């Protein structure tokens, strides 16, 4: 199904190019979905294939942001991509070195910049983004700022299944750090 979805989005991008469409949020959304589908496909690949696909994933999300500077979701996904690349294990880095000479360059600072940019583009758009901000700040050794973002995340309403997972991640992070984060009031 993912391969079929990728073929569909590629056909849509080809049709847009053939029609001379080179800008706009809709085209940006197609690029975001291309990156998302490619990312999902990597779960079915070995380490070598997954790492080989990673620059194409990043490039699709960068294209999405270039086409829609307010696409906070694409910015968030880029932040996750940078975190993932920055946290590659020795084995994964070795595999990447065989493929590329060096692994795709990425740092936690770059990840943080994308998460912050997403929050600036659309404040409070996604609980997961604020949780990622807190987590990345912890990875960078900035616990006070991380706790502040954890508090902001905890103040958000939990609505979707993704929010439930993000809230569980936030609660685990807070417990590990000894933070006391409070939930928003229940809906009436």
From TrEMBL:
* The keyword Repeat is assigned to this record: yes
What Gene3D superfamilies does the record point to? Tetratricopeptide repeat domain
Cross-referenced SUPFAM superfamilies, in alphabetical order?
TPR-like
Query: Which GO molecular-function terms appear in the entry?
Result: microtubule binding
Against InterPro entries, the record matches this protein to: RMD1-3_a_helical_rpt, TPR-like_helical_dom_sf
Q: Name the domain of life this protein comes from.
A: Eukaryota
- Keyword Repeat listed: yes
Name the record gives this protein: Regulator of microtubule dynamics protein 1
Specify the species: Cafeteria roenbergensis (Marine flagellate)
